[in-house]
């Protein structure tokens, strides 16, 4: 049997950091993510291969289970795969090839994406009927188990896809619009600690409560305007809102010289809107490029690791390519 699945990564388009204070945010699932290919084996071996991190291993099923224990002191990206495998019982082993087509550990939801794509492949292999709600829940539980805490946003984005408005009660609402979102994502290759950056904003809030409260309220207004802008399909306004949100994040102190360099370079090439995405302090920026994306991509990718993407509406999907006879 051969199975193929795909789950999308995500980027936060608007409202990072203020979302911690129950203000709204907007995220989008992207057409870059993780492809999983599963090939059944006749023996009891489970072979996992992840080219991007040069990882390959072979473990054995005992009484249909893997019984993998992750090392509490040394958590690995592979733990997400093994925790997903731990959920199921198998009659036979399999080869699992995990092809990561996104950047790891820079706020694009890579661990959630790997988990969701793997669960989908294993559900098809074991003929287990899982709804998207089940997949999102199991993947979120795996993230909590490995990370200690995790917001459900990344696993939900990978599972359901789409353009999502996270409201003041942290509920995820799909924005239905016909707007295309051609995006460039550039990686400054400096990893940042989300917890420390969230803490730095909190300290600023405590020090200058009125000023920061005003920034939060402005961000809230901006995110709500952005939601309407998607529905109105107004690409000029969207670009302006992206740039204003970048200014607010700079004011909160989470921008860096490297991120600014990328943001202004891509704007200099002609991209109309660009901002950091996620925690800041490193990681990625995105540029919204309704026109000439190839031209901007060719230029910015000479200086920075960059990929092109657009929104992914479908979320996780998979199919059985060939059945066992
Ligand atoms: O970079 P990410 O995807 O971990 O996003 C962090 C987003 C913050 O708003 C800064 C924190 C959070 O938990 O929402």
Could you characterize the architecture of this molecule?
This protein is of the alpha+beta class and 325 residues long. The chain is 38% helix and 25% strand. It is built from nine helices and twelve strands. The chain has helices spanning 78-86, 110-125, 132-147, 153-160, 194-207, 209-232, 235-252, 257-268, 293-300; strands spanning 2-14, 25-40, 45-50, 55-60, 94-100, 163-166, 172-174, 183-187, 273-277, 284-288, 305-309, 317-322. The strands form two sheets. Strands 1, 2, 3, 4, 5, 6, 7 and 12 form an eight-stranded mixed sheet that branches. A four-stranded antiparallel sheet has the order 9-10-8-11. A hairpin with a 5-residue loop joins strand 6 (163-166) and strand 7. Helix 3 (132-147) packs antiparallel against helix 4. The longest helix is centred in the C-terminal third of the chain and has 24 residues, at 209-232. The chain starts with a strand and ends with a strand. The protein binds (3R)-3-hydroxy-3-methyl-5-(phosphonooxy)pentanoic acid (PMV). The site of (3R)-3-hydroxy-3-methyl-5-(phosphonooxy)pentanoic acid has 11 residues, from helix 5.
